[in-house]
From TrEMBL:
<dbReference type="InterPro" id="IPR016071">
    <property type="entry name" value="Staphylococal_nuclease_OB-fold"/>
</dbReference>
<keyword id="KW-0677">Repeat</keyword>
<feature type="region of interest" description="Disordered">
    <location>
        <begin position="618"/>
        <end position="648"/>
    </location>
</feature>
<dbReference type="GO" id="GO:0031047">
    <property type="term" value="P:regulatory ncRNA-mediated gene silencing"/>
</dbReference>
<dbReference type="GO" id="GO:0005634">
    <property type="term" value="C:nucleus"/>
</dbReference>
<dbReference type="GO" id="GO:0006402">
    <property type="term" value="P:mRNA catabolic process"/>
</dbReference>
<feature type="domain" description="TNase-like">
    <location>
        <begin position="166"/>
        <end position="309"/>
    </location>
</feature>
<dbReference type="GO" id="GO:0004518">
    <property type="term" value="F:nuclease activity"/>
</dbReference>
<dbReference type="InterPro" id="IPR035437">
    <property type="entry name" value="SNase_OB-fold_sf"/>
</dbReference>
<keyword id="KW-0963">Cytoplasm</keyword>
<dbReference type="Pfam" id="PF00567">
    <property type="entry name" value="TUDOR"/>
</dbReference>
<dbReference type="InterPro" id="IPR002999">
    <property type="entry name" value="Tudor"/>
</dbReference>
<feature type="domain" description="TNase-like">
    <location>
        <begin position="2"/>
        <end position="142"/>
    </location>
</feature>
<keyword id="KW-0597">Phosphoprotein</keyword>
<feature type="domain" description="TNase-like">
    <location>
        <begin position="318"/>
        <end position="455"/>
    </location>
</feature>
<dbReference type="InterPro" id="IPR016685">
    <property type="entry name" value="Silence_cplx_Nase-comp_TudorSN"/>
</dbReference>
<dbReference type="GO" id="GO:0031332">
    <property type="term" value="C:RNAi effector complex"/>
</dbReference>
Length: 883
């Protein structure tokens, strides 16, 4: 029989090999060496010298091309073929193995083949065996094999810790798939461990396998067989070096597998497109992961294997510059480009502390504040890495890498434990270009117990909303008004002149209103219409103030708990900036009270001269006419243009005076009689036990309700000003009298009865009013005295009010007279307040006030007398002389 040619795929034992066709590796046959037997490798325990016998043949044959001839077959069982092998150098097997003592002749060797050639071969082998015995070679050596082999690792983690960083010699016993091997770790010449090893950093497609749960066969994934063959032809039964890196969640060893000549096989598998990089091992591989990524990229670019249909992501627009305008969370920011266009981006591969995770959620605010301090208002560079498609509850999002002063912001967050790294799917195209470095940084932060990886939760910052009620605001006002330039953070821009600010050192949350100006109102909803330049002013305030560190000076509070004062952005009065941009006008009265009038009027003139925004149609000639009129008026003790003063006398009663000196008045007449009748019916209605139903739901701000006044326990019509759901209390304003108080929900009832409705039956009878020709003191003590005096002078008195002017918001400017005592136009309640030294004639007069020359003269005489006699606010002299 002629010799056949094949390649040795593997050696099963010292006497059996697996051969495959040189041109078609899938065509295999098993050949046992004729006339001989070798000790067996067994899972339950190897026979003596089984490994040495197999290893002698493995080193000699694996991967080599050999010639072979089948001498005989045994048809029973596996129908095994028996024959002889010859290497290209003419070395014959089993001759060499017998001569080296690694094979024994079978007891029945002479009965297998009785040909002359077989008889000659057998005699030759017997002679070689006799010589090996005499020389105590191989199996014939004194003593038995001392190799201890195990296939069980009781503690894989401990095993890795003991051998991490070492170069372990090993033999690949079996290739399960392109990334999974059974290897024999040769720890010492006498101690071996057989176990599964996962190749680090890659995942190869699976081969055909049987599902153990249902016994069904699962086909191979695309390129699974090719990956398996790629590794098998290069590593099966080869000596390799194993670098243990870690343990998988299933307790399998993760390692680099290195060919003794060509090194780590993983990059070669990736370049052939027969595996993908896996992120799970990044923290184990460290910088080596970069080599694997490059190999994978090479396969993608050349469209190899798994990447045959790969479409390269379109190159982005490159690096762009923008200003950070708002921080939504630790992974989401708003950027504004040089054209003023704002866009939202998410940091690539980075996630804020999870709100749903009880250990991470307390760090959400801390992480957001970390990012705010670092970036708000700063110029950054960014590159869009990809887009994440819209999902339920989320719009499409752009994922970007943002850098500030050369530092990757996502990396800074992760390094400080302020964010975690997203575990991407294989097909995600929006991952960060430094994804592996992010994973390593996360691992370092976890090991260092930084940020949200710390066992301790951050100290939670609980802000108290002092603008929740007027009572709370007054308490805090006393503290804040004594401090200057209080550090704060603008949390929200409600309008161009109204903000929500946080004062960290006081744990205070305030509604803050700019003093001295009036900004046009912006639309509050899509159906609403803003005043001219209202939206522009709001946008400008957003741009300059949103989430910025600022300083505030608190001067006063308004009737709803808002704090009035000056807000400084970058040490500049923001009210002045608004006015300078033509996006607000000066409110003379409050500007005088704030002490910033000169600065604000100068800014307003600058905006007029530049024809900015509100002043785009400004006509200087009209201003000149006004100035000439003002000069003439000032010679008569007046200032500015004048307008005719209305003569609109009404009988009124003052029902309430707030702490700022503003009035609530009722008209006496048909409205009074109607209110008396309504209140009588209203009381009777609520005395009826059948009408005791409480509110069905917590009240809403602005809702009309029936409220039981604390002082007399009577029921009145009211409107909800503020609502505290936690305390189950509401601040209500009694709409027919103007006073307010905070009461529990139990003292509220629905006001749904049409016979009592303020919309359809009888409108609210308490009207907002202010005294004309007066400027009340800014000092809290003198202001309190003025309010007390007014309350005393108006209590239980029917007065006559001349309505001098009605503002757009419905506020009445009035001069109050007592018909029993006022004999002339100079004898008014307004004049009495000035006479007592509890108010002054304003320096900046309204048009109607400038038109009342005689009244002004009389009031100025009374003010002069009060100064001379050191009454009230003048007790220490004229404080306005230096102005």
């Amino acid at each position: 029989m002629s010799l056949l040619e094949a390649k040795v795929k593997s050696v099963l034992s010292g006497d059996t090999v697996v051969l495959h066709n040189i041109n078609n590796p899938k065509q295999e046959r098993t050949l046992s060496l004729a006339f001989v037997t070798a000790p067996r490798l067994r899972r339950e325990g190897d026979e003596p010298f089984a490994f040495e016998s197999r290893d002698f043949l493995r080193r000699l044959l694996v991967g080599k091309v050999v010639h072979f001839r089948v001498l005989y077959k045994i048809p029973t069982g596996a129908n095994r073929e028996y024959g002889i092998l010859a290497l290209p150098n003419k070395t014959q097997l089993p001759d060499l193995s017998v001569a080296e003592g690694w094979l024994k002749l079978r007891d029945d060797a002479g009965r297998k083949d009785d040909s002359d050639e077989a008889t000659s071969t057998l005699e030759k082998l017997q002679a070689l065996e006799a010589r090996a015995k005499a020389d105590s070679k191989g199996l014939w050596a004194d003593g038995s094999s001392k190799i201890h082999s195990t296939s069980e690792l009781s503690d894989p983690k401990k095993f890795v810790e003991e051998h991490k960083g070492k170069q372990l010699d090993a033999i690949v016993e079996k290739v399960l798939s392109g990334d999974r091997l059974i290897v024999r770790l040769v720890l010492t010449p006498t101690e071996h461990v057989q176990t599964m090893v996962l190749m680090a950093g890659i995942r190869a497609p699976s081969t055909k396998r049987t599902n153990p749960s249902d016994g069904k066969e699962q086909p191979a994934e695309p390129f699974g067989d090719e990956a398996h063959q790629f590794v098998e032809t290069r590593l099966l039964q080869r000596n390799v070096v194993i670098n243990l890196l870690g343990v998988s969640p299933n307790g399998q060893l993760v390692a680099n597998v290195k060919h003794p000549v060509n090194g780590n096989i993983a990059p070669f598998l990736l370049k052939a497109g027969l595996a993908r990089c896996t992120d799970h091992h990044t923290t184990l591989l460290g910088q080596e992961m970069g080599t694997l990524r490059q190999a994978e990229k090479s396969a993608k670019d050349s469209k190899q294997g798994l990447f045959q249909g790969h479409v390269a992501a379109k190159a982005g627009a490159g690096e762009s510059e923008a200003v950070v305008s708002r921080i939504q969370s630790a992974d989401t920011l708003f950027l504004r480009n040089k054209n003023g266009v704002e866009k939202r981006i998410n940091l690539s591969s980075v996630r804020q502390p999870k709100p749903s995770d009880p250990k991470q959620s307390p760090w959400g605010a801390e992480a957001k504040e970390y990012l705010r301090k670092k970036l708000i208002g700063k110029h950054v560079k960014f590159v869009v890495d990809g887009k994440r498609a819209a999902t339920e509850g989320y719009d499409e999002r752009e994922m970007a890498t943002v850098t500030f002063q050369g530092k990757n912001i996502g990396m800074a967050l992760v390094e400080n434990g302020m964010a975690s790294v997203i575990r991407h799917r294989q097909d995600d195209t929006d991952r960060s270009p430094i994804y592996d470095e992010l994973l390593l940084a996360e691992q370092a932060a976890q090991e260092g117990q930084k940020g949200m990886w710390s066992p301790k939760a951050p100290s939670a910052k609980q802000y108290v909303d002092y603008s929740e009620s007027l009572e709370k605001a007054k308490r805090q006002l006393a503290l804040l008004s004594r401090q200057k330039r209080v550090p704060a953070i603008v949390d929200f821009v409600k309008s161009a002149s109204r903000f929500t600010v946080l004062v960290p050192r006081e744990n205070a949350k305030l509604t803050f209103v700019l003093s001295g100006i009036r900004a046009p109102r912006s639309a509050r909803n899509p159906q609403d219409k803003s005043e001219p330049f209202g939206q522009e002013a709001h946008d400008f305030a957003n741009k300059r103030c949103q989430q910025r560190d600022v300083e505030i000076d608190v001067e006063d509070c308004d009737k709803v708990g808002g704090f009035i004062g000056t807000l400084y952005v970058n040490r500049e009065n923001f009210a002045k900036v608004l006015v300078e941009e033509g996006l607000a006008t000066v409110h003379a009265y409050s500007a005088e009270k704030s002490g910033n009038s000169n600065e604000l009027f100068a800014a307003e003139q600058k905006a007029k001269d530049a024809r900015k925004a509100l002043w785009q149609d400004y006509d200087p000639s009209q201003e000149e006419e006004e100035e000439s009129t003002t000069a003439a008026a000032e010679s008569n003790g007046q200032n500015g243009d004048s307008a005719p003063r209305r003569k609109d006398y009404r009988d009124v009663v003052v029902t309430h005076i707030d702490d700022a000196g503003k009035l609530k008045i009722q008209h006496i007449g048909t409205g009074t009689a109607a209110l008396t009748d309504l209140m009588s019916a209203f009381r009777s209605f609520h005395l009826n036990p059948s009408n005791k139903q409480p509110l069905a739901n917590p009240p809403k701000t602005g809702e009309y309700v029936a409220a039981q006044f604390t002082t007399d326990n009577e029921w009145y019509r009211a409107r909800v000003r503020r609502n505290d759901r936690d305390a189950k209390k509401a601040e209500v304003v009694y709409i027919d009298y103007g006073n307010s108080e905070t009461i529990p929900y139990s003292r509220l009832r629905p006001l749904s009865q049409p016979q009592f409705s303020p919309q359809s039956k009888l409108k609210a009878q308490a009207l907002d009013a202010q005294l004309s020709f007066l400027q009340l003191p800014t000092n809290p003590e003198y202001l309190a005295d003025a309010v007390g005096f007014l309350a005393q002078e108006t209590a239980d008195r029917q007065l006559v009010a001349n309505v001098d002017q009605v503002d757009k918001d419905g506020t009445l400017w009035v001069t109050l007279f007592d018909p029993k005592e006022s004999k002339t136009g100079d004898e008014s309640v307004n004049a009495e307040v000035i006479s007592e030294g509890l108010a002054m004639v304003p320096r900046k007069l309204k048009a109607f006030e400038r038109g009342a020359g005689e009244v002004l003269k009389g009031l100025e005489r009374k003010m002069k007398e009060a100064k001379e006699e050191r009454r009230g606010m003048w007790e220490y002299g004229d404080l306005t002389e230096d102005d």
